[in-house]
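Entry 14. Ran structure prediction on the chain below.
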Amino acid sequence: MSQSETWKTVGILGGMGAEAGVELAHRLITLSGARTDAEQIPCLLYTNPCIPDRTANLLYGGPSPTEELVRSLQVLIDSGAELLCIPCNTAHIWHETLSERVDVPIVHMIRTMAANHDRSLGERVGVLCTTGLVRFGLYQSACAEHGLEALMPTEDELEQYVMRAIYGSLDEGLVGLKGSNKGETIVGLMWEAAQRLIARGASALWLACTEISLIKEELTALSPVPVVDAMDSLAEELVRQARRARA
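Output, structure tokens:
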């Protein structure tokens, strides 16, 4: 494929959840500063719904996503991607393994979020993310490296509010964010968890799951503290890294 003289070709591995890759591609378009079609960032999106669920693997011993993640990234590389990203926070538990298996750099969403945090928003951040991420401590470690304190939902809050909003409860007829339900009930569940983080001293809320990114506007309207989205941070970093160095 032809290459842009201005930009590297970005490869987005989507499908975790279904709207994440499309949403990230849209944010890249709005952040690129392009004035014409020709000035836009070349972008390849591979939405793969067949990647085993990351949380199911981490918590319940379900199938590992590793090989399908590697295969999917290679599809993007073979199609011309020069810079890779995975708009799924939980998938970054496998970032080191994936980086060893492919020859194109993968931007690290979580490290980027912590490194680029605006200190004027405070140093105690409330992190809304999946149970797997809480237990594996990726956000806690990244925050500690940058002098931030990560306030995480409790196990009870994860079960009752966060994971319920993300996955729904199909036995009860509740479709979650993974089923593209962004309705009042789902927003309400996530807001319950957010309020508890704010009550414990969070000066900013971090949306650290790409499903939660889909209700950023709704949570921002409710929150008395700033809401910062990891998908926005990833998009900004991709724009920075994708720009070709001038000879």
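Residues 167 and 176 are 5 Å apart (CA to CA). Will compare against last week's run tomorrow.
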